[in-house]
Amino acid sequence: NDLTTPFNGDGVTVDLSGPGSTATLTRSEITGNNIGDQNSTNAGLDGSGVFITLNDSTSIQDLLVSTNTIGNIGRLERVEVIPVNDDDAGIKFVRFGNSTTDVVAPRTGQIRAVTIDGNVVTNNPGDIVALTVTDGLRLEGNDSINDVQDFTISNNTFSDNSGNGIQTITRGDATMNTDIQNNTIENNLLSGILLTGIELVSTDLESQG
């Protein structure tokens, strides 16, 4: 995909946003896909491998992102509709507003609202002209404290990416809980795992656990 498509260069896009949105994504799976090409930039992507965003009063319930192979993505700098961080990632999840991630009807063994398991994200150089970087996994929580964004990150490989292996970001009053276990994280240009909290004003209550 390139930036002239509605997908803005992403391999898989889930977009729950728009003024007054109340949509719910229920017990969905993004599994077993080959996204981009780990060995050839000719078959890569300009955007993220998997890009999930939610805003307003939308909800994601019991989401599974598993056994995907993602490579050579994030090749072209772009400007997002809501510009918080324009860098792409193998798997990128961004939350705004009062949107929620919820455990409602979990699969066996699933204890968090979003499970990212068994993916291989490797060889993502970013845009070498614009000097953008590409994380293996980026989770961003913004705005309201009304919900704890919760994730399980397990049994993945994040390697040879131009950014971080895993980066989690909370801004404003956002709260995020992540279980990170049994992953292989190696040879990424920046950090292996980077947790970042950004308080925009002195009364912000962002937190990660």
Protein described:
With 209 residues, the chain is mainly beta. It has no helices and 20 strands. It has strands at residues 12-16, 24-26, 29-31, 34-36, 50-54, 59-61, 63-66, 69-71, 89-95, 100-102, 114-117, 120-124, 135-141, 148-154, 157-161, 166-171, 175-181, 184-186, 193-198, 207-208. Strands 1-5-9-13-16-19 form a six-stranded parallel beta sheet, with no helix packed on it. Strands 3-7-11-14-17-20 form a six-stranded parallel beta sheet, with no helix packed on it. The chain starts with 11 loop residues before the first strand and ends with a strand.
Give the biggest sheet.
Answer: 6 strands, parallel
**Rg estimate, integer Å:** 16 Å
* Uncertain segments: 80-84
What characteristic shape results from the CA principal axes? globular
Order of helices and strands: EEEEEEEEEEEEEEEEEEEE
Strand order of the largest sheet: 1-5-9-13-16-19
Mean pLDDT: 87
Determine the fraction of residues in helical runs and give it as a percent range: under 10%
Strand content: 35-45%
The number of distinct β-strands equals 20
What gap, in angstroms, lies between the N and C termini? 35 Å
- Helix/sheet category: mainly beta
Number of helices: 0
List the main descriptive attributes of the protein structure presented here.
209 residues, mainly beta, 6-stranded parallel sheet
Write the SSE topology.
Elements: E1 12-16, E2 24-26, E3 29-31, E4 34-36, E5 50-54, E6 59-61, E7 63-66, E8 69-71, E9 89-95, E10 100-102, E11 114-117, E12 120-124, E13 135-141, E14 148-154, E15 157-161, E16 166-171, E17 175-181, E18 184-186, E19 193-198, E20 207-208
Parallel strand pairs: 1-5, 2-6, 3-7, 4-8, 5-9, 6-10, 7-11, 8-12, 9-13, 11-14, 12-15, 13-16, 14-17, 15-18, 16-19, 17-20
